[in-house]
Structure formats: C-alpha cells, structure tokens
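Sequence design from tokenized structure. All designs in this work follow the same two-part layout: the structure record, then the generated sequence. An example of the structure record is given first.
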C-alpha cells in the first residue's frame, strides 16, 4: 500500500491478518471471510484508504468473533479445583421410600386430600433424589457434547492463507 495510505491502517491490517490466522471459526464464516479478504485486496489495489478501512471492518469483526469463541471454548475446560461428589444409585430408592412414607403420614393425618398434596411434594423429593445421581461432571459432559454437535469450528483453511498472502504482497 503506498501513496496516501497511513501507517495506522497498515498496522491495523497486519495485526488483523496475523490474528486471523490464529483464530478458529465455523466453515460458513470462513467462506465469508475469504470474500471479505478478496474485497480488501481489491481496495488495496485501488490505493484508497477510506475504502480499505471500510473493507477491513468485516475482517476485524471475524477476528473478534474468533477470539471470543476461543475464550468461551477455553472456559469450557475443567476447573483447577473440583470438589468431587460421590454419586450413588441408592439415592432414588431412598427418595422413593421417603416419598411413600410422606404420603402415608399425610393420609393418616388428613385423609386422601392431604395424601394427594403430600404426593405432589413426594414427587418433587423423588425428582431431586434422582437428579442427585448425576454428577456435575456428567451434566457438563452432556452439555459440551450438545454444544459440540451444534457448532464445529475449524482453523483457517488454505483459501484464507492464500488471500492473506495476496494482501501481504500488496503491502
């Protein structure tokens, strides 16, 4: 880039290109970035700073999105200190027996109406006991598996590297 182009935009451009090679995005986003890089290269050939700056914006937005996705993916890792809980398969049985005992006491105290009300609460007790059989790690693994199925991110494809090389040749 020569002539009326400022050093600031050239620095921004170089920084964005370096950052772009380090991020991971969805495949569909990469194809958009290739098109954005082609428009950016065309603007560089035209040597117009304002147009170059406008064409750089979608590229820097993609870089930002990639950095955010990587930070969120990093946050999905395991914590440094995890206090383990011991899951037990007896917990639902204990919860079920407690629920039945609660319904029985409810019937003895107030008849069928109180037994039905106690039964609603007993179902809640059983659900909590059943939920206690799953560890936090199990729930986290299930959540990560669901996220991994929805979104597949990948490193910069060869087309991005080629487009970056073309732009660097113009600088």
């Amino acid at each position: 880039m020569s002539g009326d182009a400022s050093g600031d935009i050239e620095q921004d451009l170089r920084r964005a290109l370096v950052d772009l090679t380090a991020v991971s995005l969805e495949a569909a986003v990469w194809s958009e970035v290739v098109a954005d890089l082609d428009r950016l290269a065309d603007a560089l050939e035209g040597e117009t700073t304002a147009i170059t700056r406008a064409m750089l914006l979608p590229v820097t937005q993609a870089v930002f999105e990639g950095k955010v996705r990587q930070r969120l993916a990093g946050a999905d890792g395991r914590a440094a200190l995890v206090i383990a809980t011991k899951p037990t398969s007896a917990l639902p049985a204990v919860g079920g027996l407690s629920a039945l005992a609660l319904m029985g006491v409810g019937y003895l105290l107030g008849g069928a109406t109180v037994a039905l009300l106690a039964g609603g609460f007993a179902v809640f007790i059983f659900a909590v006991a059943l939920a206690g059989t799953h560890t936090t790690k199990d729930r986290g693994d299930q959540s990560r598996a669901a996220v991994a199925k929805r979104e597949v991110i990948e490193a910069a494809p060869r087309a991005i590297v080629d487009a970056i090389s073309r732009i660097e040749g113009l600088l």
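Confidence is low (pLDDT under 50) at residues 1-5, 77-85. We note this feature because it recurs in several other targets discussed in the main text.
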